[in-house]
């Protein structure tokens, strides 16, 4: 079965506001104010918790090390788990695009570097869990993207074949994951990186979810 696998943060949904809020909760707890800004730091937010913490410490100009990042990371996760869907929004056309693919006989799955439990909580709160046959998170397997194993697991758990699949994402990590799995990558241009994702030379760019069905048919012919 042909399968389309989606990244979550920055691809299906703009989660940057809630991620930045969780990181700022850490800095407030350390006696600082809100160090990060949701619009200014969206691209860093969508890389994950640790990159946000590093950026915040750098911006503060204080002495810091990776032990401090590691110490605050569980605090960030706890804050995020308590407010996983306050500012998050699905990108326009995302739901309709997935529904169209499924109606056309495609399997759909999510492969994300967000911890699995948080990813499950988010997509359930967004009301889209039933649109995906599988979800593989950062901690589902011993490895995470850009390793090919989580991607392959997402495809197989959704009932598909890796050789008949593609990855829709928004970062270089997604591009590298697709290359490791030897499948096409489609990078969205409506995330924080915008058209800049073209520098990673994906097989295709996606300007709007309305175009995904036709693109998937072209990249995954029967």
Could you explain how this protein is built, in words?
The termini are close together. Strands 5-4-1-6-7-8 form a six-stranded parallel sheet, with helices on both faces. A two-stranded antiparallel sheet has the order 2-3. The chain has nine helices and eight strands. The protein folds into two domains: 3-14 and 88-219, 3-Layer(aba) Sandwich (Rossmann fold); 16-81. The chain has 222 residues and is of the alpha/beta class. α1 packs across α4 (66-81) and α3 packs across α4. The chain has helices at residues 16-29, 42-45, 49-60, 66-81, 94-103, 116-125, 148-157, 172-181, 212-219; strands at residues 3-6, 13-14, 89-90, 107-111, 134-136, 165-169, 185-188, 204-206. It is an enzyme of class 3 (hydrolase).
Seen as an oligomer or otherwise, the chain set is single chain
**CATH class placement of the largest domain:** Alpha Beta
Q: Averaged pLDDT, please?
A: 96
Order of helices and strands: EEHHHHEHEHEHEHEEH
Task: Give me the CATH architecture of the largest domain, please.
Answer: 3-Layer(aba) Sandwich
- What is the molecular shape? elongated
């Amino acid at each position: 079965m042909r399968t389309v696998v989606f990244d979550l943060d920055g691809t299906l949904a703009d989660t940057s506001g809630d991620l930045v809020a969780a990181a700022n909760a850490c800095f407030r707890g350390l006696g600082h104010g809100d160090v990060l800004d949701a619009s200014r730091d969206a691209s860093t937010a969508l890389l994950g918790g640790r990159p946000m913490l590093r950026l915040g410490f750098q911006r503060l100009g204080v002495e810091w090390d990776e032990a401090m990042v590691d110490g605050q990371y569980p605090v960030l996760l706890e804050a995020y788990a308590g407010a996983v869907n306050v500012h998050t929004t699905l990108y326009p056309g995302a739901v309709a695009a997935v529904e169209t693919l499924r109606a056309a006989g495609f399997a759909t799955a999510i492969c994300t570097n967000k911890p699995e439990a948080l990813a499950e909580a988010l997509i359930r709160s967004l009301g889209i869990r039933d649109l995906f046959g599988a979800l593989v998170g950062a901690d589902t397997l011993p490895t995470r993207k850009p390793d090919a194993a989580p991607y392959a697991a997402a495809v197989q758990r959704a009932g598909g074949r890796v050789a008949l699949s593609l990855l829709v994402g928004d970062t270089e990590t997604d591009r590298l994951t697709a290359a490791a799995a030897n499948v096409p990558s489609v990078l969205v241009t409506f995330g924080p990186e915008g058209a800049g994702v073209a520098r990673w030379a994906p097989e295709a760019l996606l300007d709007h979810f309305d175009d995904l069905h036709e693109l998937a048919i072209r990249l995954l012919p029967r």
